[in-house]
Amino acid sequence: MDHSNLHATTLQHRSMLQVLYVLVFMISIIIPGSLSEIKDTRIVYDSRPLIMFERFGFAESGEVAISIKDVSWRSKQQKTEFNPSSLGFFLVRDSSFSRILNESQNTDGFCVLSSRYVKLIFKLENLVANSLNNNGSITIDDPDEYNLLLGNCQPEFEVSMNVITEMYNLRDGQKNYLPAGQTHLPKLFFIFFIIYTCFFALWLFVCIKQRQTVDKIHLIMAALLIVKALKMICASEDKTYVSKTGTPHGWDVAFYIFGFFKGIMLFTVIILIGTGWSFLKPYLQEREKKVLITVIPLQVLENIAYVVISETGPATKDWMAWNQMFLMIDVICCCAVFFPIVWSIRSLREASKTDGKAARNLEKLTLFKQFYIVVVGYLYFTRIVVSAIGAMVNYRYEWVVHACAEGASLVFYIFIFYNFQPIEKNPYLVIDDVEESVAGQILEEDDSFEL
């Protein structure tokens, strides 16, 4: 009886480990690129067999240094002795998770710290008795992208500790705390800051030149360019300081603030343009107000979730929940922006049958259709395609993923600002002198505007 119970417990333990390895592998996939900086993480009575801290892309001369202090543990079972050597830190590649899973299935009494597929940094068997502190380091002789994890081969024990992780590459004898694939990001973000600054200056010139036709939406669009440019310079300074010192020196706070306003204003601009507010009509309908009232608070929550995800890391117990909430809110906001565009297209089609302005309505419909397609393409590219590119490119070219995302955003901004600029030839502001009968016939025969 005892033997059968022991066997059942062993099988249950193996099954839990298999699920955990798959879960950790999934977490490593959804981490948005390599993390960086010198991290100080607090683990509080955690019994997880695997705790993932961060991911980092190493070059030929990469190093990892870990310092722990105030280590304590407690047992969930009576009369169980803690073995410090069952707890330790290690590095592992993404490709090795499946091999470790297979190894755990075929090895009795398996402990991940003994796996041949991990790079062990140190075990806690060398804890200083009085202070319960320890530290260790390792030099990477096989450059790749690695995940840093804490393994606990006695999950019946809950452990607490403060963990300071320092991961960097040596370049000309100097520490660079950015992963190998992010070393170009400071320059990349600064280039986009220059571009958006020039963009804003050009937009300001156009608004001044055409001030008689400037509407409120154009001022909001100008503010969007300002916060986007400020976000880019903050991102550049953040990465610059992190690369040199391992800490952002407060630039991350500024980055989050301007990112917060940029996110809210971008979705607001898309919705307001979709409704035709200020240049088609001076008011918002009740249903359009409801979309705005829904999206703006959701954007606030999304930005809060983004800050929590970025600042805590996967070692936090509820990190996955915050990640799921971030993705869910982003999907909801992306879907919500389509409703005003669809409503405007339908109302324009209905108006074209009664108001006798077929030519003007045809141009409006064409522009709204283009706007709809571009919004769909932009959201699909930045949410789906960029993630796919990140999964395919080598970790050393992680900056290419950011370049693609920012490039797509720039193209999207150019389309919006060009097509909705305050000029007299804008089809929203004047009625072109064309054959109404021809335009009416096109509207009657062409069903391409039907959604």
UniProtKB/TrEMBL annotation:
It comes from the Eukaryota. It is a multi-pass membrane protein. Residues 39-169 form the CAND6/7 N-terminal domain. The chain crosses the membrane at residues 16-35, 188-208, 217-233, 253-279, 321-343, 371-393, 399-420. Keywords: Membrane, Signal, Transmembrane, Transmembrane helix. The keyword Cytoplasm does not apply. This is Protein GPR107-like. It comes from Xanthoceras sorbifolium. It holds the Pfam family GOST_TM. It is found in: Membrane. InterPro entries: CAND6-7_N, GOST_TM, GPR107/GPR108-like. Residues 186-427 form the GOST seven transmembrane domain.
